[in-house]
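Re: the multi-chain job from yesterday

Posting the exact lines I submitted so nobody has to dig through the queue logs.
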Amino acid sequence: MNSQRCYEKKHPDHKTIVKVGECHFGSPHIEVISGPCSVESFEQLYEVALTLKKLGCHCIRGGAFKPRTSPYSFQGLGETALQILDTIREQMGLAVITEIMSQEQIQQAEAFVDCYQVGSRNMQNFELLKSLGKQDKPVLLKRGLSATLEEFLMAAEYILSEGNEQVILCERGIRSFDPATRNVLDLAAVAKLKELTHLPIIVDPSHATGQRSLVPPTALAAVAVGADGLMIETHPNPDHSISDAEQAISLETLESLLPKIDAVAQAIGREEIIKEEAVLIGV
Amino acid sequence: MNSQRCYEKKHPDHKTIVKVGECHFGSPHIEVISGPCSVESFEQLYEVALTLKKLGCHCIRGGAFKPRTSPYSFQGLGETALQILDTIREQMGLAVITEIMSQEQIQQAEAFVDCYQVGSRNMQNFELLKSLGKQDKPVLLKRGLSATLEEFLMAAEYILSEGNEQVILCERGIRSFDPATRNVLDLAAVAKLKELTHLPIIVDPSHATGQRSLVPPTALAAVAVGADGLMIETHPNPDHSISDAEQAISLETLESLLPKIDAVAQAIGREEIIKEEAVLIGV
Amino acid sequence: MNSQRCYEKKHPDHKTIVKVGECHFGSPHIEVISGPCSVESFEQLYEVALTLKKLGCHCIRGGAFKPRTSPYSFQGLGETALQILDTIREQMGLAVITEIMSQEQIQQAEAFVDCYQVGSRNMQNFELLKSLGKQDKPVLLKRGLSATLEEFLMAAEYILSEGNEQVILCERGIRSFDPATRNVLDLAAVAKLKELTHLPIIVDPSHATGQRSLVPPTALAAVAVGADGLMIETHPNPDHSISDAEQAISLETLESLLPKIDAVAQAIGREEIIKEEAVLIGV
Amino acid sequence: MNSQRCYEKKHPDHKTIVKVGECHFGSPHIEVISGPCSVESFEQLYEVALTLKKLGCHCIRGGAFKPRTSPYSFQGLGETALQILDTIREQMGLAVITEIMSQEQIQQAEAFVDCYQVGSRNMQNFELLKSLGKQDKPVLLKRGLSATLEEFLMAAEYILSEGNEQVILCERGIRSFDPATRNVLDLAAVAKLKELTHLPIIVDPSHATGQRSLVPPTALAAVAVGADGLMIETHPNPDHSISDAEQAISLETLESLLPKIDAVAQAIGREEIIKEEAVLIGV
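And the result, structure tokens for all chains:
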């Protein structure tokens, strides 16, 4: 039996829109998720949130549980961070997305967040994926550092096949040989994924490049190649970021970047590309 | 503060011996773990166990929970497999090692196994590593598909720093560009790891090469480079293996390989290399 | 002595414009080089040339000497191809670019071409680079399949340090693990190179992706990230291309792509980005 | 027509022995080529040569023309180095191998050397390969940094198909992501190549690892996996080596390594493996 996979398109224009708060991933609009690598304090997150509101962004990210190479590095504020995220969510009306790394953390985060993020290191943590397949919140699934597109889509399939259709894919750079950039941003993969699946695909230029100055140009390239959204690390004071300081851009840089993102989206005729056939889920 | 990591050698000859049943990983003896990719039936495992006993191997592996790229592939016999493993363990006196992918599976497997295996995909599943750090059984930690040695050792540190010192490292091939072999077996990494850590290091030539005919020569090379042991997939009838059929060797091939392994170990003067300074843990 | 390299910027806005016929690589205009992988016949090249003229492109590419993995594959028409290129050049007023692989081929091509191309496989053919450093024609230098940016720039330095300043860099994909695309197009490298060097940088989306349908989106992404030009394989009848048939786009596709390229260039404010400080060479 | 390639085995035991001076690559004996990265002086090379003679090695290597990433790095003594190599060859009766990078260098080196070496960067310098195919001296062909085995063998085919059957393949590490070693030594590739071709295959553990301390264990592993020989960088005073100082081992280390190499060769029953079917060429 050669049954179709859930991630496959049923017809060439098949496109899913995943709703997270007021964001519609997969719609003609380029959704920009932004926020700090780690939630550090209410003040920090509030300052980011104010800017996002002003700029018309509807989704904030912030790490509560941080997967770190070393057990001795800052591991995130955990529960405290979740509560800060929740307050921002309530007060500002922003949708909240945060990374979870275990079934236990899903339960901890459930009441506080609008979308779960699965990081690269857990892309093939199949038990976690199966658990997420049973949740009724959207999942942002990041590509593993050395995952083929086949493996990436099959990881999504673990979630979809359990019944949760709200999956957003995220390209965030793959591991390669050149120390000139942190990872290699694989934008052709975005174009290829759009052929292979109806799921929305966003790009994280921050983790992909690991360098502040490279974030704006690669963000624009991501839009030009057809990404449905971006996830960009920002910090009110990037140099003082507790984690990933080199790649966080300032709120001013984000502000100057957004009009260019819109301009590029318009240049490629995005409204016309994304057709009426899109199916909205997660309302 | 620049405090020493748990995995680091305290002096050049510092070497840990991790005991799993009658196996002493890190001792002068090359320990060979063998068995099928998946536990398929009692008969299958019994046949393998009989051969291992005859050949003087003390540790059998067999998958109960299988991490598979596709959710539709065979996922292992689970609980049933654990019970088969336990019976073999009781009847044959072999130590049992099996892969676990979640905290829940640790609990399920606890009563039945002698050593937990963490697969490549979960090398940076930090919540799992922390849980294993609180167990009192040895952990076989496989290198991630694109993990640097620094990341590999830091993953071990997650276990060690929680108090469990019984960690065996396993090189099993890294992802690369050439489809000629499934992965690229990184044997220089074994030599390098021996400089960087006191932990025992074994090699899995089966997953590294993905081809039956390449297992014996790479197993011998692993011994020559200084590995403390091998993990080799065997099957009574390799062509009928449910998973990873192309890489499992027959019991006859294993039988003919073992004397060569001993010969190479002797040729490199292994007894003399592994000094008296070794510290036995896990008794 | 820590003397500055020729490829390094002397001040942040330092930018070189390399002139090839009427093309100005490094100027605000996105220059598009196009043409077939191999020159197959006068008719084939003439048809491409007609379209390029109509579309306002000034530079045609076509392989005379083809570097092929197998000695038994079509190796190019050689001298015959050079003469076809020369006729097109004379009749149509297009600048001609072709790959050379040896000092002998430089001499053969000299009278017929406007720009020499060095392919990925020869990026570190240092004797060839030194010879090109003594020529007075521009050189298009493609990045090697696994070249770091440091190595890429140092390869350019071999040409520059011999006195030939007319070097155009070309990102064309690097080798990686995923068979989903032929190579991985490294667009962040383009942004990074623009920080490191004053030399113009173009992108070849055809060799990078190896798939016709992926060429337009990645071409647009290349423009968005800041590339100074594109090299795109076209064929009057792509399916009948003797070499690289899967990646050549039709002339119709090229025609529909060019306005989008202009739109994206405008969207990122390219005219304003490329400042007056640019130094024109090769006039 | 699906004609057989020259590199393919005509029957399973088909094995070619390539003779370089008194060395027989592909015979049961593990041939060890050694010498400095660059020829620096007569005294330096003489000291190495004396040791090689004493140890029973018959082949000395030394760079006259050095391919260097930077045009400003030491490029080798050129003609002077060739004359030093020739004097050593005459006085000591050692076969001489040196790298050439162009047709011109082939001619320069012809009178002075017994075997040409093609470096990794030139593995797909097809014009060079074709020229070597017309010479009557053996060629040592190193695998490209990111060459698949298919590409490696096809590069050999360029030489073989022109009539020169004296090709020795050399695995020397491939490019990968981990800075822990300079490259990744791909020993499974050696085992795979032995299945695919009758040509002799040697291993260069020096360039593969880039670290002195890793050379002996990986050299032994290379023998265990079935390599027909080794190419090991030595220097009378490694710390003062002009190029590649970190990877050159001392003559004393070489002396202590050779008996272990013999022991491992014996342990894997090398004499019995290499059968009588071997065809000697290059006498």
